[in-house]
Amino acid sequence: MTGSENKKVADINGYREPIFLEPHFTHNIWGGTKLRDVFGYNVEGDDIGECWAIAARPNGRSVAKNGPFKGMGLDELYSSHRELFGSQHDKFPLLIKIIDAKSDLSIQVHPDDDYAREHENGSLGKTECWYVLDCDDDASLVVGHNATSRQELCSMMDEGRWSDLIREVKIKKNDFIQIDPGTVHAIKGGVVVLETQQNSDITYRLYDYDRLWNGKKRELHVEKCKDVITVPAKDASSSIVHDTDTEQGIRLLDSCAYYDVYRINVTDTLEVETDSLYKLFSVIEGEGSVDGYPLKKGDHFILPAHYGKATLSGNMKLIMSMEE
Ligand code: ZN
After folding, report:
1. What is the tens place of the pLDDT at every residue in 157-205?
2. Cα separation of 100 and 34, whole Å?
3. Could you report the per-residue pLDDT of 37-46, keeping only the tens digit for each?
4. Alpha helix segments (H runs only) across 67-169
5. 200-215 mean pLDDT
6. DSSP 3-state assignment of 152?
7. Is the peptide bond before 23 cis (omega within 30 degrees of 0)?
8. What does the DSSP assignment read for 8-62?
9. How far is CA 153 from the centre of its chain?
């Protein structure tokens, strides 16, 4: 090891600097312009669907913006500097996105880990959750369905009785929705969400409103949907939190087998502690700072393991998450 490498390792043990991330963006047929117009991201086009804010996927990664890791993708950072994370997975386990749905996304469902392992070459299933950042008046999301038995589910699908089958729920800004595997779901047009999810990509499409995209319908996965959809669906109200509180503080929104997700309101100063496991942060409103580093809406950063106490100050709202 050279002298400079030695010094780098010494600096990194007890590394005490937030790691800011530059997102990856995707262009989608249903995307819009809010990621540029509302969040200020420097990205071209009128079909910007997703900001992969904290991402370590082979087809898109966020990249460190500061410090000795500047320019390094999160996938590489996780595999080469595990001491920053304090966790042991083959790959970085979470994925944080902001999604701008200008038009309706297709109606879909994700398998759980067991089904995905067996039917998708050992892949992980997907559990995800949404925090509504912006939506039109009268907005809704698809969460669940109305079939009472698997037989009824299959016949409704076969007969194309989609409006009977699909359950839409009215939502407002600051609603939080947990989507377990097996839950029929879709983001509807006019809704912007921050999504926290398992780092997995296995999606079964149930219905795409018979739309043509470039002259073709998108592929559906009818049989796999029939296998994995939970019947009957969970009551929608048990998956939704109306997070209207504006007082300073930290609120746990959901704790599941893969992640804990919190909402943080800062109106003055507030301390968060990071011990043996890293924490992920996304600023979703306002501005302020973390230990003197400026923060604004649309910023995403990691506090490394053993960072200790961090002071958030200003007037802002954040989503904080950590793996389970
Ligand atoms: Zn999904």
Report:
1. 999 999 999 999 999 999 999 999 999 999 999 999 999 999 998 999 9
2. 7
3. 999 999 999 9
4. 74-80, 113-119, 150-158, 162-165
5. 92
6. helix
7. no
8. HHHHHTT--S-EEEE-EEEEEEEEESHHHHTT------S-EEEEEEE-EETTEE-
9. 28
The encoded tokens of residue 265 equal 């309101």
| Sequential DSSP letters for 149-198 | SHHHHHHHHHTT-HHHHEEEEE--TTEEEEE-TT--EEEPTTEEEEEEEE
* Contact (CB, 8 A) for 90 and 58: no
Identified catalytic residue from 150, 205, 211, 251? 205
Task: For residue 316, report the distance from its CA to the centre of ligand 1, in Å.
Answer: 27
pLDDT for position 6: 39
| Phi/psi-derived region of residue 14, left when phi > 0, alpha when psi is between -120 and 50, beta in every other case | left
Q: How confident is the model at residue 2 (pLDDT cuts 50, 70, 90)?
A: very low
Interval between CA 203 and ligand 1 midpoint (Å): 7
Q: Active site includes 211?
A: no
Q: Worst-scoring range by mean pLDDT, 66-75, 150-159, 233-242?
A: 233-242
In this predicted structure, the answer to whether residue 206 has a pLDDT above a threshold of 80 is yes
- Start-to-end CA distance of the chain, whole Å, equals 35
CB-based contact 304:84 (threshold 8 Å): yes
CA dihedral 143, 95, 59, 5 (to 10 degrees): 180
Q: Which two tokens stand for residue 58?
A: 């082979």
pLDDT reported for residue 14: 67
Ligand 1 centroid–CA 248 distance in Å is: 31
**Residue 105 Cα to ligand 1 middle (Å):** 10
pTM strictly above 0.70? yes
Question: In degrees to the nearest 10, what's the CA dihedral of 73, 284, 247, 171?
Answer: -120
- Residue 317's H or E segment, with its range, is strand 308-323
